[in-house]
Design goal:
1 helix, Transposase_IS66_Orf2, IS66 family insertion sequence element accessory protein TnpB, 3 strands, three-stranded mixed sheet, about 15% helix, alpha+beta, about 60 residues
Length: about 60
Amino acid sequence: MIHSNSIYFVTTPIDMRFGMGRLTTFLQVNFPNKCYSGSLFIFTNRQQSMFKLISIDSASKKVS
């Protein structure tokens, strides 16, 4: 189970082939102050037919 303070819907469509490392880099560049806040980020593809969720733990920098 993922517990988060905030939920952010990222409106920029992404390529669903992106792995967690590339999504984390995207967050570090575009959301530097919120990236490691324990928030939940929702990504979608251009057709909005698929989505990915990512949350990064602030203490251990663990991606889930």
